[in-house]
């Protein structure tokens, strides 16, 4: 398929005939003004690659028509339906019902971040089935609220599967979460789903795909709440760092500025509850990125400070932090990395984070190869 000679005509055609949405609706979904959309549809060529990719994703335009290579448009953005939900015309649900389901999501997110991912998974399938049943028989008024709750639950299910390295289940859940968010016309929740998928791609060493997903997610949330934008910038920085891109530090600076504008009371979409973006997580990313770009001394100094200010209840974060600390120490040729790797291993096991366990194993393999006779290395291998 050849590139279209007039990008704007393609965008208008897909907006009207395929997506069936107005210019105002498209403007909301891509974080632009209606005037910008009018200008875009009159433009023969859109030079902004990120904007082209975002429009192709939103409107399901074949990438080639807008001059995009396959790698430029994340595959996860071109979805086929996992489950078709029929139109609803039933009775309205009470506010108490929604509050109960929202509280259940909050409780499970607390279990995921503060306790065990496996505990958060207990009964989750039944919960999803009940929400789906209500969606099938609810009124049009309640539909969007149920769709967003279901999207959150599928995201959580995907995160739990991802932590267990069950990437096939995770991808299926993230796709379903994305479809539900799109049906609810909730760009914020869809962008959050893309970030979850990006993390999985990063773990699978698909860094270009992860980077593209983050870029698209950040593009469509330019006008979204600052908490979500800070979360996306922090996650994107990690991928940028792994790619050796020093702009990772710029992303983290942006995240820090955005975090100061967060209103904790404005969280009707549960975005803050779902992301747990904080000054601590940004500091954590700052340290890790310095390791990635070849400055482990800066990272080690930062981790030293972080360790004394850690919230002991954030077990998942501590597991990740100790593992990253160990990696920075290893890069700095400091054998105390063995101690922090062992501590990270214990915490990762306690919350069921198989990914961090795998990271410790990779580090232990390097240490064993280089220092086979070192007692500290032997103790780490014994712990494994």
Low-confidence stretches: 71-88
Which CATH architecture of the largest domain would you pick?
A: Alpha Horseshoe
Total separate domains: 3
Spatial extent as radius of gyration: 22 Å
Output the CATH class name of the largest domain: Mainly Alpha
Determine the strand fraction and express it as a percent band: under 5%
Q: How many angstroms separate the termini? A: 52 Å
CATH-assigned homologous superfamily of the largest domain:
Tetratricopeptide repeat domain
The average pLDDT value, as a whole number, equals 84
CATH-defined fold name of the largest domain: Serine Threonine Protein Phosphatase 5, Tetratricopeptide repeat
Discrete helix count: 20
Number of strands: 0
Largest sheet: none
* Helix and strand composition category: mainly alpha
Global morphology: globular
Spell out the helices and strands N to C. HHHHHHHHHHHHHHHHHHHH
Percent helix, as a range, is over 70%
